[in-house]
Task: structure prediction
Amino acid sequence: MSDEATTDEEKGIFGGLFVNKHVEYIKSLDKRHDEIEYWMTEHLRISGIYWGLVALHLLGRENELDRDKIIKYVKSCQNTDGGFGGHTGHDSHLLYTMSAIQILVMYNVLDQINGDKIIAFVKSLQDESGEVSGDCWGEKDTRFAFISVAILSFFHAVDQFNMDGVIEYVRRSMNYDGGFGSQPGGESHSAQVYTCLAALAIAGRLDIVDRDRLSGWLAERQLKSGGLNGRPQKLEDACYSWWVLSSLKILGRVHWVDRQRLCAFILSAQDTEDGGIADRPGDIADVYHTCFGICGLSLAGFDKYPLDEIDPVYCMPVRIAERAGLRSWMNN
Ligand SMILES: CN(C(=O)[C@H](Cc1cnc[nH]1)NC(=O)OCc1ccccc1)[C@@H](Cc1ccccc1)C(=O)N[C@@H](Cc1c[nH]c2ccccc12)C(=O)NO
Ligand SMILES: [Zn+2]
Result:
């Protein structure tokens, strides 16, 4: 049949979302050994696999990656201290331990690794005040407060942590604008808002939040392009579709942003030739923005393609969070 006869759907384009192009883009990532970016991002390789896997799950195409090869690779990233590095042989860090566990939970093989050693690694990073560091070098950040609580919740071991101390650190990081920063006194930033809300949701302490004031601050992240930014005066960026919208979803205020215009912005950031989504139109796509752009479409209720529903706390499909017994935060 001649080419022009093929419909958008036959080309894998649904309401402007180039599904097949994004699947091919993600599948191609592990073959780009001739590109400097492949080697420059070795230190966060395990996060890259996590981002690709989330995107494929939301598109209903999770079987397009080699499951056994990925599970074997993830296990090769675990160190003797129980933590995981961003690549085989790299030092343990909470960021990559989180990505590793999220991958294993999505493949339903968390029982194949030693949870007690991971719990011990996480507990080793909390100091007497309850603050949490990302690794043995001691950098503190509300990101790590969330990740430590999330990792323990995967093993239903939150009771082994000084939760009051973690929650107090998060509460002290709340600002007058209703937002949260990376530490007490830190400027409000959409991504830090997500980490603090996700930690409070797991701990059942969303009562600490000034819901309407924070939702107002988050809704003000939307610019006339329809895109969302991370802080006042900053440019819109497709990944903030996730940081801002997951926060609004946790607060039950997603309708406070114009979802239709947000979807249009995310679709405008697609690379319709080679696949993938960039931070904004005209920039180079990467797997991080492809993942968080598709997460944004899912949260915004994009309905031209059946996207899986994403859990706003754990950043994985709701059906997988349910299977792992992680949805109890909804009742808090
Ligand atoms: C190290 N990273 C960043 O600093 C990105 C860069 C960026 C992308 N768009 C605008 N800037 N920024 C970023 O992740 O911001 C979110 C953030 C920043 C600081 C603290 C918390 C969250 C990105 C990688 C990156 C680098 C350069 C370009 C694109 C992606 C990154 O790994 N971010 C991490 C941040 C993060 C990890 N775990 C978290 C838990 C909660 C919140 C955030 C994270 C991530 O999203 N993992 O899943
Ligand atoms: Zn971004």
User: Anything to note?
Assistant: The first strand starts at residue 13 and ends at 14. The mean pLDDT is 96. The first helix runs from residue 19 to 28. The chain has 14 helices and two strands.
